[in-house]
Amino acid sequence: MSDTRKQNTFFGGAAILAVGIVLVKIISAVYKMPLINILGSGYTDFTNAFNVFNILLTISTAGIPVAMSKMISAANAESRPNQVRKIFRVTFLFFLALGLICSLAMFFGADAFAALMGNPKAALSMRMLAPSVALVAGLAAFRGYAQGHRRMTPSSVSQIIEALFKLIVGLSLAMLLIHKGYDESTAAAGAIVGVTVSELAAFLYMAWEHHRSSRLDSAAGDDQPASSGQILKVCLALAIPITLTSSATSIITTVDASLVMHQLQNAVGLSLDAARGLYSNYSGVQTVYQIPASLMVAITASVIPAVTVYFAQGNKEGAARVVGSALKTAAIFAFPSGVGMIVLGKPIVQLLFPALDAEIAGTILSILGAANIFVCLMLVCNSVLQAHGVLNLPIVTMVIGGVIMIIFDFFVVAIAEINIFGSPIGTCIGYGITCCLDLLLVKKIVPGCPSFVRVFGKTFFASAIMGAGAWAGYGLLFKFTGSNTIALILAIGFAVVVYFALILLLRAINRDDLSLMPKGDKIGKLLRIK
């Protein structure tokens, strides 16, 4: 295969994965928004179970697809079919066994984990979620095998299957249990059952896909495969750094959630049910806050291969140009979405989450609007650093920001007058510090990196004007219509028009920047952007 064809295949595969992930995030948002309204304070049980699940899942699966895909790609390049088959067999069995151990730990240790989270009512949800750890471990191995053969579609399809089953089964069970008169904790466990069913459905699909496709890859070979120990050693060497990176995020998030729940009860003096209800406002609005970050997947999927190619060619100018375009494109989405949350937090909560306290949740969403900007830029910075071979420093900056966030939350959430609001403020400060450190690293590591004032200045100005227009527009429209829904929709529509008009007038984006977006070239031609 020629270099051009390889590059196109790589970019195409990355695009398929990116589109699949974005679709999954959209379906997940559609799933979580009504779920929050159904469960109420039970959504805290749901999120607490997921916090523990994510740590165990990271231990047993993080890095498997990347490690396996690299090993299988290398074996295919050397025409070693026996090595390919043994890589899959050894890694699949090892990580499935590790996933099973973590599943058993979560099931039998559910009461202890729930107590550590400061929420004993989350134990049932944890037990219902436990089988998913082993299922996802097997899924990760299947996905790694497919990606190693440059088949990205099965991974994307399996993720969409997960999301759809979670949406249909999880919501249906939660609504049924509430209708039957069960309490919110039991309904949360029902929603969790939908997650386990979704993982089983995705696992069965990938097992079928593997059986079908492996026959196409079953060419006979006379190569002598490496020993099981050697294969496992190489796989772990590749997977462990990725696991450590992912673990840092999961552990920090879980420790922070546990700390907040304990401080609300022990320092502020709230009952368990009051703390669960208060925390559900915070965990609920995170569904909206996390949506813009999911759009960064499409950008990072394009940035890493693009920068890697330029870097390998020694083309520093090309690499710097892509980095500038990536940061600018991220800002095009991050700044207006963050500003929109800041100025319209309460109306958004009133529209999407009638079960939440709009005063509390709206204020939290407004605070998280600033954190949203930091998170989006941080994700793109991390992809740039990874493309330059800098893997450990992003972990360090994330840990620094996370530790500061935890320390801040420990002291501030304990202040009765601030309580739950201390958590989103700490999130904003922690991610803000991490983002700033990452931007400094990018500036230092990328030769010829453009000025951040030039990259962000016009977009920031356009977003500020848009935010002022959205705030004033909503206020006037609500005064005349008396309807939050009408006023919010019209205000957002007006803000979008103002924002993109300013982006075009200020020439804040060019054709190179758009090339990192799906269908970016066509959009550039349509809008006559040079």
Walk me through this protein's architecture:
- The protein has 530 residues and is an all-alpha fold.
- It has a domain at 43-240.
- Helix content is 84%, strand content 0%.
- The protein contains 20 helices and no strands.
- The chain has helices spanning 3-39, 42-61, 64-77, 81-108, 110-116, 123-129, 131-148, 153-179, 184-214, 228-266, 272-289, 291-313, 316-352, 358-387, 393-412, 422-445, 452-481, 484-505, 511-514, 520-527.
- The longest helix is centred in the middle third of the chain and has 39 residues, at 228-266.
Keywords:
single chain, 530 residues, 84% helix, mainly alpha, 0% strand
Strand and helix layout:
Layout: H1 3-39, H2 42-61, H3 64-77, H4 81-108, H5 110-116, H6 123-129, H7 131-148, H8 153-179, H9 184-214, H10 228-266, H11 272-289, H12 291-313, H13 316-352, H14 358-387, H15 393-412, H16 422-445, H17 452-481, H18 484-505, H19 511-514, H20 520-527
Helix pairs in contact: 1-8, 1-11, 1-12, 2-4, 2-6, 2-7, 2-9, 2-10, 2-11, 3-4, 3-7, 3-10, 4-6, 4-7, 4-10, 5-6, 6-9, 7-9, 8-9, 10-11, 10-15, 11-14, 12-13, 12-14, 13-14, 13-17, 13-18, 14-16, 15-16, 17-18
Task: Indicate the structural class.
Answer: mainly alpha
Number of helices in the DSSP assignment: 20
Q: Looking at the chains present, what oligomeric state does this protein adopt?
A: single chain
In whole angstroms, how far apart are the ends?
A: 33 Å
